[in-house]
Amino acid sequence: MPRFDLTPTELTAYRPDVREPDDFDDFWSRTIAESRDAGGEVRRVRVDTPFTVFDVYDLTFPGFGGEPVSAWLTLPRGATGPLPAVVEFNGYGGGRGLPGERSDWAAAGYVHLFMDTRGQGSMWGSGGDTPDPHGSGPSATGFLTRGIDDPESYYYRRVFTDGVRAVDAVRSLPEVDPTRVAIAGGSQGGGITLAVAGLAEGLVAAMPDVPFLCHFERAVGLTDRDPYHEVVRYLSVHRGADERVFDTLSYFDGANFAKRATAPVLFSVALMDPVCPPSTVYAAFNHYAGDDKRIEVYTHNQHEGGQAHQWFAQAAFLAERATAG
Questions:
Q1: Number of Cβ within a 10 Å radius of residue 307
Q2: Which of 67, 138, 203, 241 has the fewest Cβ atoms within 10 angstroms?
Q3: pLDDT tens-digit series, residues 7-41
Q4: Average pLDDT over residues 311-325
């Protein structure tokens, strides 16, 4: 696919005004507080695997409203703690998969928690295990318009809260140094990473890779690819609902979370990405409040971005910030 967005020079300066609700901070502080107050236990059970260099646990933690969320917890075998940790969030439609399927961070010496995304896990990969026990009004196929009539009922309110509570859960583990917790994820996982970076305090690093869920109003009008195109299909049926829909989405825009995030951050962007257009990624990056920020640019890639190249960049970035002490 040829480049279709702003030029590289324009992208580096692209810092648009993004719709932001007046009660954004109140909405999220109340949401997170209510879920923390709901309580719940972190539970884990060791899983038998063929791996000899790390141990895998089936971990359950309380997410939105105290509801149970599944995750895989992978620990380097024989390592002495407390260790730095990486909490990782998944791409759109995927689940946590099989135990040990994501082992790079544990192999590099980190405690790794890979969060299941509630209600997802049946579009690709090896499946998911966490239900989303909430109904919604009419929506288009997919997840992006579920509950979009109101921010209180919107699907990503629950997912982003699950992400914050995943950080809480990993910080509670005896093997983890709670001051050295990083977050990471690609595409949808990158969008969740940005949200958690804006909502959770004291993170040692955030690593959003080709992030989704940023600058909705530009994305929806710029690309004809899903998932953003789910909003187009919804609005093509619910004519005249634009203001209501984009008001809801403004509570979940990665650019608004970026304005509140201060952890050291490493973004990535692909300049031929038709799924998460580069200007939407730069909208979040250029609004990011922290001073320690970098972006890896993959000039001729689409949504696959840097793949293993990006993981090695993340590993080097995180080693400088999380492995000392």
A1: 13
A2: 138
A3: 999 999 999 999 999 999 999 999 999 999 999 99
A4: 89
What's the predicted TM-score (pTM) here? 0.97
Contact 169, 61 (CB under 8 A): yes
User: What pLDDT, on the 0 to 100 scale, is given for residue 1?
Assistant: 64
pLDDT tens profile 69-114: 999 999 999 877 799 999 999 999 999 999 999 999 999 999 999 9
Q: Could you write out the three-class secondary structure of 196-241?
A: HHHHCCCCCEEEEECCCCCCHHHHHHHCCCCCHHHHHHHHHHCCCC
What residues contact 310, with CB distance under 8 A and at least 6 apart?
209, 268, 296, 298
Q: Using CA of residue 139, residue 144, residue 148, residue 154, what is the dihedral sign? A: positive
Please name each of the domains of the chain with its CATH number.
8-319 (3.40.50.1820)
Q: Which residues are catalytic?
A: 187, 273, 303
Question: Nearest-CA neighbor of 253 among 21, 6, 71?
Answer: 21
